[in-house]
Design a protein that fits this description.
The protein is mainly β. It contains 6 helices and 24 strands. The strands form 2 sheets. Strands 3, 4, 6, 7, 9, 10, 12, 13, 15, 17, 19, 20, 22 and 23 form a 14-stranded parallel beta sheet that branches. Helix 2 links the parallel strand 1 and strand 2. The structure holds 2-acetamido-2-deoxy-beta-D-glucopyranose (5 copies). The site of one 2-acetamido-2-deoxy-beta-D-glucopyranose has 4 residues, from loops.
């Protein structure tokens, strides 16, 4: 047992070193905001569009800048590219009143309404939406239509909304924290290679499909989606996830499922033969959809000790970045 603990400790310090080497460079004056820019469609603010507010931020930025967005529906397609540097906070008034929306559906990458490709990003009280396919009556009017792409280390989302139908939330890469968010969709609507914790989130299934499609590709790949105290409901029916790659990892802990969750729970998809490599698990979940008696036989059963490795601190916040970001 002692040796096991030592090995695990070594393993975690190795992961920490990896983060220091490959992770985000910290922002200057870590927890202070250098200045705030305001956006309002009705005037009286610095800018009337979020695009222009972002354009005013110099490239290679490394001090925290807040963009405060007044209520409104902003029809804009935005990409915060890598050369912007990082350290941006986007804050709306409330996710139900401050909405960024677009309706592209060309492909997964260029359909994205709001793409964040920098490290160190915070969003609060704002909804990211891709409206394509939501109102469609049949599948010919549906396609990949991403609302948000999170591609960078240290992204935190508080009380945000992610609304779409297929591929809503592209949790692409990096350590991400989603707290008290609302996520709506039907097909693979939380997908990618992110290393993420979703806490107290509300997931609304609006069709027949799959909640997650995680793409962890090897045992060395740190990615995975951990849902804790989340609530899954809706009008459709869905599996909790399907394996997008051979080592896909998705874990629901202390969450509540309505009967929207299919009895079999999970789908191997194109990863036949990798059932034992995939980590799909449920721990201490409740509600009518949480009965695991008819689940696929290859789900993982986690013990308390393993579950601890998936708490926010151990899984994504080893260096305490979450509380270092300014409010
Ligand atoms: C935003 O507006 C305020 C008040 O008019 C002004 O002091 C500030 O310089 C403006 N900031 C930018 C980035 O335009
Ligand atoms: C975000 O919205 C919630 C209500 O949905 C509100 O209680 C909270 O104060 C807002 N946070 C900020 C920072 O405005
Ligand atoms: C989007 O990507 C598709 C193929 O991936 C391409 O055919 C299309 O021209 C692109 N559209 C835009 C607007 O970039
Ligand atoms: C789920 O989404 C549908 C479609 O947008 C909406 O009508 C419904 O109110 C949502 N449910 C919840 C609980 O938010
Ligand atoms: C299971 O979840 C309940 C809340 O639904 C919580 O009170 C309890 O502590 C959890 N049990 C374990 C073993 O984690």
């Amino acid at each position: 047992m002692k040796l096991e603990l030592l090995l695990i400790a070594l393993c975690f310090s190795f992961l920490n070193v990896r983060f220091l080497l490959s992770g985000a460079t910290d922002c200057q004056n870590t927890s202070t905001i250098a200045y705030t820019i305001t956006v309002s469609q009705s005037g009286g603010a610095n800018f009337t569009t979020i695009t222009n507010a972002l354009n005013s931020i110099p490239s290679d930025n490394n001090q925290w800048i807040k963009i405060l967005v007044n209520p409104g529906t902003y029809k804009e397609q935005i990409a915060i590219q890598k050369d912007k540097g990082g350290c941006i906070i986007l804050e709306g008034n409330d996710r139900t009143t401050t909405i960024i929306t677009f309706d592209n559906h060309f492909s997964t990458s260029n359909s994205t309404t709001f793409a964040v490709d920098i490290d160190n990003f915070v969003a609060r009280n704002i909804t990211f939406k891709n409206s394509y396919g939501i109102e469609a009556l049949d599948d010919t009017k549906r396609a990949q239509a991403v609302a948000l792409r999170s591609y960078g280390d240290k992204h935190a989302f508080y009380s945000c909304g992610f609304v779409g139908y297929q591929d809503t939330l592209w949790d692409y890469q990096g350590r991400h924290y989603f707290k008290s968010c609302y996520i709506e969709g039907a097909v693979d609507f939380i997908f990618g290679n992110g290393q993420s914790v979703y806490k107290h989130c509300s997931i609304n299934v609006t069709g027949g499909g799959y909640i997650t499609a995680q793409s962890r590709s090897s045992t060395n790949d740190n990615s995975g989606f951990v849902f804790r105290k989340c609530h899954v409901s809706g009008t459709g029916h869905a599996d909790l996830g399907r394996a997008y790659d051979a080592f896909a990892r998705v874990i629901f802990i202390d969450s509540e499922f309505s009967k929207v969750v299919n009895p079999e729970g999970w789908f191997i998809w194109h990863q036949n033969g990798h059932e034992s490599d995939v980590t799909f698990a449920e721990f201490n979940c409740t509600g009518p959809g949480s009965d695991t008696s008819k689940r696929v036989p290859w789900i993982k059963k986690l013990d308390h000790f393993t579950v601890k490795q998936y708490d926010t601190h151990a899984f994504i916040n080893q260096d305490g970045w979450i509380s270092k970001q300014p409010l």
